[in-house]
Queue: 3 jobs
Job 1
Amino acid sequence: MKREISMDTAELLYENWQGQFDTFSHMEFACAIPQSLFLISTLKENGLPNLCFHSWSCFGGDEGGYFAVMQNISHTSHTYENIVRDGEFCINFISADYYPNCIATIVDNSNDCDEFASGHFTPEKSVKVKVPHLKQAFMSLECQLACNVDLSRKGISSMIIGRVLHASIEEKYIEGVDLRYGQQGFMFNIHEPADFATGQLKDTHVAALEVLGSYPEMKNKPMK
């Protein structure tokens, strides 16, 4: 039997903090779809580096470009302010080993804070943008702002789309592709999945991929 969940079922769930279902749709927790976790680097107006631990994203494109599509960029955040002002940012993929470092950038994120320092990360000069990327990242994408859309039209958050201008990938992650898809590779967010039996939201979990097999029959198959 399937449970039917609509936009009218928020009353079946309990917020963990006041305003949680304003900041995030309750469907976020009802569906709890895993998504990659990464750090967005930008520069504050005073020139200090800013980091945002983020998920809610997808990546894709065609011959016209490759794009990073990021949802839920809060209008009250430094990250949103910096991207709108400067029109550029970097996306940094790191393994779950750095999860505590990422949390440290949330705890200490004042306007006068160097968030690379608060997270014990090392900045590296980017190729196409002024924003530095992370030395600790196994892959970094340098992006230029392409689109800023308030999908809900509530003035709460935006979908930010960045055109990827350049990628830096750690050599061993190119040569050993399996590294990207295990515990030392992409980190995933399982965001407070809802238990509809109790109405409670469970703890957020961090996950990594487990490769189950390959599909050689899909090689050289065009999309339809």
Job 2
Amino acid sequence: MRDNSLQPVVFVDDNEVDLRVAGICYEKSKLCNPLLTFSSGEEFVAYMESDPAPFPAMVMLDINMPGLCGFDVLEHLRSREEFREIPVILMFTHSDDPADMSKSTDLGANGFITKPSSIRDYVEMLNEFASTIVPCVAST
């Protein structure tokens, strides 16, 4: 069994502003796992295939990225035996298209979340993960 508190939480998004906002909100949240960000699907897949890469506690994938989109990355991860144990892969996007939601589930995502529109909502969402998905909670 893995120690989730040492496993990174990963955001994969080609939008630099979205990654900066994610980092700011992450710092304000109760999560204390290391945060890793990647600006492309290819960069994240290369990281996962490096040896030894810290196994993520949770991966949040943007859908719309050039090159390997979030669906491609999800399909790649779920098709490989060594990556099937990633406990949580969430599609994290501005889309609210039911077809995107359905495709995410079909490819093995654990959930589909529309990106919050405010910092407060974003931090609250991350705090929910702290209590339900990633058990490590920073002391205050």
Job 3
Amino acid sequence: MRKEEIGKLLERSRKFKDAAEFHFSRGDYDLAAFNIEQSLQLFLKAKLLEKGVEFPKTHTLRKLFILLGDMLNRSEEFKNFANEKILEFSSLEDAYVTARYFPRDFEKEEALKLLCFAEEVKELIGRVSD
């Protein structure tokens, strides 16, 4: 069951990433940012489940990321990364909230930076988790 759940989360993460790239290509940068956040959130939750950790009921990417760092015995490295990239984490968390409740426009450069940031997070996790 756990393996199936992890697979579904990773597949949904990929689909949200695809949706982000689609919306980016159309100039819908607010929707791109929202989908980037969803993609990264599901990816982090899948990685926590892979480590045998029930993820907390939160949508805060930074908390999920730091928890994963703890589970990978890389607490300091992940905390430092999270502090260096606090604006990127905050922008994605804003994208989650504003897409649902408040109008907020994202600029092309901002959405592109968030796409690159999400890939950077995934690469870091891939590098240290295997």
